[in-house]
Amino acid sequence: MGKLRIIYAIGCWVFGIFIGIGHTAFELLPKDARLEGLAQTLREFSLSMPGTQTNVYLLTLGISLTMGLMFVGYGVTNLAILFKTPKDRLPELSFQIINVVFSFAAFLLAWKYLFTIPIALTAIAAACFIFVLIGGQIQKRKILKQ
């Protein structure tokens, strides 16, 4: 189970921590002149939403920063679950299935709408979780046959 736990941890780090920090950094780093011009245009479109008056730029920035934070939280939560799981086991099958479903869905969305880096990172995470799910089931069957 040791190697599968390492692969599971890699999936957690990639899907949660790397994507979340990368996403947040991308939003907060200085933009080139072209992107800054686009940001200024988005600031000009005001929105009235329940409880606030904002603009499209601040709305998309807030959504994006929240998404980055949620990715980090997802990764940290999964790592905490992994570390609380006994060393000779993998996290519960339900956690593994949830990770496969969400990382693969994120990969499909990245493939359709994003660029190389998020496509690669979500593919790596999904591959890790799928490999661990299948590998864990194979090991479980071997143990039961003995």
What would a concise description of this structure say?
This protein has 146 residues and is mainly alpha-helical. It has 5 helices and 2 strands; from the N terminus they run ααββααα.
Shape, principal axes of CA atoms? elongated
Give the C-alpha Rg: 19 Å
Structural class by SSE content: mainly alpha
Low-confidence stretches: none
Which SSEs are present, and which pair or pack?
Elements: H1 2-28, H2 33-43, E1 46-49, E2 52-55, H3 56-84, H4 93-113, H5 116-145
Antiparallel strand pairs: 1-2
Helix pairs in contact: 1-3, 1-5, 4-5
Task: Note the main attributes of this structure.
146 residues; 2 strands; two-stranded antiparallel sheet; mainly alpha; 81% helix
Protein model, in words:
Helix content is 81%, strand content 5%. With 146 residues, it is mainly alpha-helical. It has one domain (2-145). A two-stranded antiparallel ribbon has the order 1-2. Strand 1 (46-49) and strand 2 form a beta hairpin. Helix 1 packs antiparallel against helix 3 (56-84). It is elongated, with a radius of gyration of 19 Å. It starts with a helix and ends with a helix. 21% of the residues are buried.
